[in-house]
Write a structure and sequence with these properties.
Length: 686
Amino acid sequence: MTSPDDKQRQLDAYRVDPRASEMTTDLGIPIGETDNSLTVGERGPTLMEDFHFREKITHFDHERIPERVVHARGAGAYGHFELYESLGEYTRARFLCDTSASTPAFVRFSTVAGSRGSSDTVRDVRGFATRFYTKEGNFDLVGNNMPVFFIQDGIKFPDFVHAVKPEPHNEIPQASSAHDTLWDFVQLQPETMHMMMWMMSDRALPRSFRMMQGFGVHTFRLVNEAGKGTFVKFHWKPKLGTHSLVWDETQKVAGKDPDFNRRDLWEAIESGQYPEYELGVQLVPEGEEGRFDFDLLDPTKIIPEEEVPVRPVGRLVLDRNPDNFFAEVEQVAFHLGNVVPGIDFTDDPLLQARLFSYLDTQLLRLGGPNFTQLPVNQPVARVDNHQVDGPHQTRIPQSRATYHKNSIGGGCPALADENAYTHFPEYLAGHKTRRRPESFADHYSQATLFWNSMADWEREHIVAAFRFELGKVDRHYVREGVVEHLNHVDHDLAVAVAEGVGVEPPEKPVTDNHGRSSPALSQTNTAHSPATRKIAILVADGVNAEDVGTVRDGLRDIGATPEVLAPRDGYVRSADGAAVEVTRALPTVDSVLYDAVVVPGGAESVRTLSQDGGAVYFLTEAYKHYKAIGALGEGRELLSAARVPDGGLDLGVVVTDQPDGAFVKEFGDAVAAHRHFNRETAAVPA
């Protein structure tokens, strides 16, 4: 039976405990001085014989490896996967058949376009790559937080990445799609339109990796013991629901805490608030793929959940942070070709390209073919083959026969029998060609489906995103080209975008909107919970200690994470003279780092905060970003100073004179709603 302990023991063998040793060179020679080089006299030249200096500086000079071209900025965590029900009817993959197994896993989340030094909260696709360390080998499900992609054929991937990356003449802008080359690519490639609708939606601005869906993107194939195939789409759904930031907020977070999503993941795991996701599958029997009005092999298309429901089959819990970012998160080498018996590929042309590209990339980044021996990449399954030598070889093969067939080594390793990986025996025939199938030719109907499925506030954000992005494009004809494509998606959308970017609005639609929608695509239809939400409690000297205690303890009871913020760090004095501990000083944080705000009572405290421009703006900005606001007693006076409406649960503002469980319950519900987009933001000061 697979156990996370197997992987844990394997990783433990490579860990170094710095507390139990003295400093040495890489070869174990004890070192008693590492602050001064060996010189001729105190002010003389450094000697070449200083082997410790040379080793130390040489290692430093070589300690960086090439960063990933895409998905360079990431965060990762270990966990385990548990199966709800056996999928033995569809696959022979053991970890998808044995409900008693707990399969160790590693997940790497990432942005796509930016460098390692870019911010977490840029508008971008997010990678969601999962490695299952199964007894049959590693299975890597390398996906994104969006179920489709920009292009249909992998031969276009270099073109797309070159277009979205900083422009070559000035290396600007970093980690942003708001520039000419990306939108020039888009206006000349209509296949991008479905993905661009997702990119301009709030899906590109996740609140947290813990509140982000994941998708395998491609159609894969499950194969059972009898050799029967079933097409499959993989989905990850977060337990906390799918929630996003708003655009103004993301830009400010990038300055206040560029590690916002990384820090959120790390702190959640350290505090025991383990991220959890449900694995779901959409299954389509072989031979039934023709019943759709799109091609299952087209990576720019989804299977609407109304046509094939997502079947929950298991859960993933992330419960341990890495010990060393470089060794684990940076050196983890995912590859779509890492599959186990019972999981196979399809002829999706983007998938086929990725099968080559990932392995080729790892060979460059990690210095040769032995990257699989790095601890984070090692399978828990036994490894035995004739692949030897090469850079960074850490195994010590003892066989004298490193070839097959052999008699000197007793014929070992022997070929696997019934456990061997077997490719699905798909019949293939056809002429060599460089043409797309006609079934890939519809580039607009699912973009329209996405638009039709959005709530009003989501549509407003999509229009604003197109206007912002195209507003950064210098070439007017590129703006016109994008608007022309949007008119194929929805006429009202095209007109709204055109009016915002100085383009002549189209007079009439190219095609009528088909009217179909898929409710699962809207973030209004997701789980809502106050659990793990970060709540700011604003206090100063003279605060009502009872209010603080009731709110802080009540929020903790519903799973939220309250923090007491004051103009200074340490403690503040309550109205009755007690000391109230401060979590952080207000000048060191910002409203954009919190999900909601509460102002306890206490006349002196509220008066001090009302005279503090930073505290007033903290509340104003939280309201502007649609967050839940709470006030107790005199706390309502700070709301007035910040021009926040006094009460109104429909606006997510909860005010009371009674610090009790009823307030916590009502405020918790407002926090769980995530954002209150029905506010009249025009009434809020800029």
